[in-house]
Amino acid sequence: GFTDVTCTASAWCYASADEREWWAGTWAQRVTESAMAEQAVAAGISSPDELADIAAGWRAWANAPDAWFAVLNAEVVAVAP
């Protein structure tokens, strides 16, 4: 029942040193200091030490000179009559 449906896509790419540092920092913080981290520990999916290791992995990745990370985004805009 929608009209004027438009489907597009975009991509985020983090490749520069500054972009990698920011992206890795956000994920390192999420896996250790967020509701997601609390829920993973409470559910027995991960331990605080394992989450700290994941955060360290993100930080190590950020320092690799040839590292990059891409995210593909699908976008749909639809107008209701």
Tell me about this structure.
The chain is α+β, with helices and mostly antiparallel strands. Helix content is 49%, strand content 28%. The chain has helices at residues 17-33, 35-42, 48-62, and strands at 3-14, 69-79. It has a two-stranded antiparallel sheet. Helix 1 (17-33) crosses helix 2 (35-42) and helix 1 runs antiparallel to helix 3. It is flat.
Give keywords.
single chain, 81 residues, alpha+beta, two-stranded antiparallel sheet, 28% strand, flat
Q: Got a strand count?
A: 2
Main sheet record: 2 strands, antiparallel
The N- and C-terminal alpha carbons lie at a distance of 7 Å
Counting H and I runs of at least 4 residues, what is the number of helices? 3
Order of helical and strand elements: EHHHE
- Give me the oligomer status: single chain
Low confidence ranges: none
How is the largest sheet built, in terms of strand order? Answer: 1-2
Per-chain topology:
Blueprint: E1 3-14, H1 17-33, H2 35-42, H3 48-62, E2 69-79
Antiparallel strand pairs: 1-2
In summary, what is this structure?
With 81 residues, the protein is of the alpha+beta class.
